Amino acid sequence: MPTPTTPPADALFRHRVFAAFWFAPIASGFGFQMLSVAIGWQIYAITINTSNQLGEFESGMLAAWLGAVNATVFGGIGTLLVVGFWMAMFPGLRRRQRLQL
């Protein structure tokens, strides 16, 4: 009775169909990861540009409506109100000495 021999490690990859079947999910996964990064990058670029433009528009409209000095004072007061609101909502942040976890 003949003794069985072990095939070489790359025996399956010598078959073209199996090699394509094996490498296809790897290539597909790589492409999906590239797509995920590209979509995230695009969303980031759109929202950052939009938020800057909306902020400029809001500041310009407020300055045209109230005047430059009044808009500056109103913006400062609004900032202090938002900070006060956050201090009231999250008292743990108010007591922190450092911004480390």
Give a quick precis of the structure.
77% of the residues lie in helices and 0% in strands.
Key structural traits:
mainly alpha, 101 residues
Residue ranges: pLDDT <50 for 5 or more in a row?
none
Overall body shape: elongated
Please describe the biggest sheet, giving its number of strands, its sense, and whether it closes into a barrel.
Answer: none
Q: What string gives the helices and strands in order?
A: HHH
Residues in β-strands, percent:
under 5%
**Distance between the ends:** 70 Å
What structural category characterises the helix and strand content? mainly alpha
CA gyration radius, whole angstroms = 30 Å
Mean pLDDT: 85
Number of strands: 0
Fraction of residues in helices?
over 70%
Q: Given the structure, what is the number of helices?
A: 3
Fold and architecture overview:
With 101 residues, the chain is an all-alpha fold. It has a domain at 40-101. Helix content is 77%, strand content 0%. It is built from three helices and no strands. α1 packs across α2 (68-89). It starts with 15 loop residues before the first helix and ends in a 6-residue tail after the last helix. The model has no long low-confidence stretch (mean pLDDT 85).
How is the topology of this model organized?
Elements: H1 16-66, H2 68-89, H3 91-95
